[in-house]
Amino acid sequence: MASEPAAPTPQHETTLGLSNEKMGMWAMIGSECLFFGALIAAYLIYVNAFGDAPEINPSTIYDIPFTSVSTFILLMSSLGVVLALSGAQQGDDRRMRTWLLATALMGATFLSGQIYEFTVFMEEGMRMSTSPFTTSFYVLTGFHGVHVGVGVLMLLTLWGRSLAGKLERRKSEIVENVGLYWHFVDIVWIIIFTVVYLIPAE
Amino acid sequence: MAATAESDTSRNPFRRPKATTGFWSWLTTTDHKKIGILYFVTAFTFFIIAGLQALLIRVQLAGPDGQALNPDQYNQIFTMHGITMIFLALMPLSAGFFNFVMPLQIGARDVAFPRLNAFSYWVFLFGGIFIYSSIFLGGMPDGGWFNYAPLSSQVGPDPMAGTIVDAHVSRMLFYSIGLQIVGLGSLVSSVNFVVTILNMRAPGMTLMRMPVFTWMTLVTSFLMLFAMPIIGVALWQLMFDVRFGGNFFDPSAGGDPILWQHMFWLFGHPEVYILILPAFGLVSEVLPVFSRKPIFGYAALVFSGIAIGFLGFGVWAHHMFAVGMGPVANAAFALTTMFIAVPTGVKIFNWLGTVWGGKLTFPTPMLFALGLIGMFTIGGLSGVTHAVVPHNYQHTDTYYVVAHFHYVLFGGALFGLFAGMYYFFPKMTGRMLGEKLGKWHFWLILIGFNATFAPMHILGLQGMPRRVDTYPAGYGWEFWNAVETAGSFLIAVAVLIFVINVVISRRSGVVAGDDPWDARTVEWLTTSPPKPHNFDEIPQVTSRDELWNRKYTSDHGKPIRVPAGGSGEAAHEHEAHDIHMPDPSFFPLVAALGITIAGYGVFTGGIAMAAIFGLGLVVGLYGFFGWAFEPPSEDDH
Fold it and tell me: Secondary structure of chain B: what % helix, strand, coil (to 5)?
């Protein structure tokens, strides 16, 4: 199994030349832009709405250095999925698996950081019900975390399937599509990190 | 590789279903035509339910101080009438046409993702059942289909406490979770249709050769693709407010209930076009066939559809003129609303131009199509009056608005869907729908519809408020309300005639043949009903009215029939066994079931919640993983 067959099989010929799966992934990513757009908009509306708890606000609660480190790890994981794709394209299954696993682990590290961060916030009295600011923060970053979790699950699945020798048909295409999703989740985090953590509130 | 695929299925506790007929074939089908029929049957059942709810509303309002329903029941009934008609009847009826007709129109053998297509149907069905299961669990949603906060978002009990007993909270959760599940189906089917139309066209089928219905399917799918995530976020926010003490819409905690209105209508107005554009597409198929002329101004028709799609996202706040956004916002949205009337008007003139000078015949589909032009234009004109802000202040929340949106959604969308049902019934079943009963159906529903909804204009301008369960005597509203109730029963009779017609014609209707209407587009090239693989040979498309041009040549503008066997499709009975169609699968059904089970977890707390979520997660993941690991077709490796 040195490399993928060069020509696509006849039933995968498409009008625009792009595979259905990849176009479907792009369409879904377009839809997700609106999903996160709406969540980010809601956060921006409430970024200064602290209700009865003015002491819980962006300048007191966020731990920028900590979140910067976990952000760096998540962004580096995009490099990981690119290297996994390169391995898949060159038929180097070992390299592909290594980087799939590394990417999944980086994603899991980010998720652990987020869970730790949420726990600290809860201990400091920041709850879902504290104020519109806290509600919109938890819902926005929480949904992003769910997306990272789904991505980790997909990466681990690819890794496991490849290890069992069951990831052969259109391997690089599948890795590429999961990679598209993964990059998207990363890019959304760049926006969330900038908007939520870096731009200071009034 | 063949060995790996086989070992997958041998470990699968469900054997790969093979049946193509019978009960199990319907549960496991991935054939777009069967899924389309499932959509029709299910959506029409919901349509009947919502119609009965409408009759209850009309009985309650037939005279002053109605006693048929108490206020709580009335709130539930009118809410469920709206939710059911929009999400469980009109949208899935359109989806039925998308499924059945669109792949045939572009000369494809199936949609891009057949199992995803089945999944869309099952989440729609389970989502509908989920919402209606509320009858037994504390009552149905009762906040209107728009479900405005903060009425809808009153905070529930402590999230970590036990089961929810508060009926209000439970009703709002049925709204938010139920629509979330149904919406997921719309979202994934929009991905499916976008990819299918862009990527699976027959050779020669360029974008500007696509039938108008396929174009409107594409525009509608893009609208769903971008509108569904917005309502998704709004519904999640509502759920977090209602169930987990969130503050999105709670003014006492600093939240803003107007945010709900913005989110809802930012989805809700594109949704209006999601409902009407498929009907526009169907009518654009019917009118040229029965005028025996090409569609007038094809490019204008297509581009006005696209323009409606874009502008549809920029008009939402005209639903909110009275909430106090200020004169600048009101003026801006008044202008965009008037703008969007332009491409809509262009379409009306396209249809008039198509009919003008044609050799007209008037079978039932043509009657419904012409009915749409008339009734929708009335609704469109009253829509423009809503855009006039001072006028809007006067009639907002009155029956004038109810009259308007029934003229566009009933006189528009539903008439178009009926036109499509009469037109495509022969392709779906191989038999014609009865013309005699069809004409009764059309004229009764036209009269009943106008008797029911035209007087609402008058009542609305006289100040009768909508959404209120009764009215006192002495305002002069008695006469027209009585007329409306009588009209609504006329509609019920008409729909009953349609059902009888379908049942009779299904068994003993006139056998249709491949092309009973002498139609213009390639879906009429194949057999009626089409074979599982649609076309023995994928048609080569050379023009917009491909089938017409195969049948006729033009002699000074007069169509001359090409002798049979000339340039027509030669009879090919070959290679059908070489065509690999996707095999049936259980997994879309299982995955949809898992999501629906998890939905019930939100109503509980603590361990019960964890258990129900866990069960839903296990079932759902089993479905999704089984789906991902099984090949689309057993031969396909």
Answer: 70, 0, 30
Contact across the interface for B247 and A139, Cβ inside 8 Å: no
What is the tens place of the pLDDT at every residue in B226-272?
Answer: 999 999 999 999 999 988 889 999 888 889 999 999 999 999 999 99
User: What interface predicted TM-score (ipTM) does this complex get?
Assistant: 0.92
The phi, psi pair for B398, rounded to 5°, reads -115, 175
Residue B431's beta-bridge partner residues? Answer: B511
A1 located within any domain: no
Q: Which residues contact A130 (CB under 8 A, 6 or more apart)?
A: A51, A53, A56, B247
Domain ranges (residues) in chain B: 1-30+580-637, 31-573
Residues 64-83 of B with CB under 8 A from A: none
CA distance B602 to B244: 10
CA distance B97 to B133: 27
Q: What are phi and psi of B569, to 5 degrees?
A: -70, 120
Whether A146 maps to a domain, the answer reads yes
**CA dihedral in degrees (A188, A194, A196, A197; nearest 10)?**
130
Q: What is the pLDDT of residues B545-554, one digit of tens each?
A: 999 989 988 7
Both structure tokens of A153: 């699950």
Q: Which residues are paired to B552 by β-bridges?
A: B561
Which residue of A1, A11, A34, A170 to mutate against B (max B Cβ within 10 Å)? A34
Q: Which of B228, B229, B255 sits opposite A132 (nearest CB)?
A: B255
Lowest-confidence region among A164-173, B363-372, B459-468:
A164-173
User: Kind and range of the H or E element at A25?
Assistant: helix A20-46
Quick check: is A11 in a domain? no
Give me the residue from A11, A14, A135 closest to B580, CB to CB: A11
> For B575-622, what is each residue's pLDDT tens digit?
555 677 888 899 999 999 999 999 999 988 888 899 999 999 999 999
Q: What SS3 state is found at B12?
A: coil
As a whole number of angstroms, the distance between CA B222 and CA B198 comes to 12
Please state the pTM of the whole predicted model: 0.93
- Cβ separation B225–A31 shorter than 8 A: yes
Taking the CA of residue B23 as centre, how many other CA atoms within 13 Å lie in the half-sphere pointing to its CB? 0
Alpha-carbon distance B631 to nearest alpha carbon in chain A (angstroms) = 10
- Decide if A4 is inside a domain: no
Are A46 and A133 in contact, with CB atoms under 8 Å apart?
yes
Nearest to B248 among A32, A35, A136 (CB): A136
Residue B588 preceded by cis peptide, ω within 30: no
Sign, CA torsion B145/B146/B148/B154 = positive
Residues in chain B: 637
CATH class for domain B31-573? mainly alpha
Number of compact structural domains in chain A:
1
- Upstream peptide bond of B529 is cis (omega within 30 degrees of 0): yes
Domain housing A138:
21-46+68-198
* Arithmetic mean of pLDDT, B499-510: 95
CATH at residue A137: 1.20.120.80
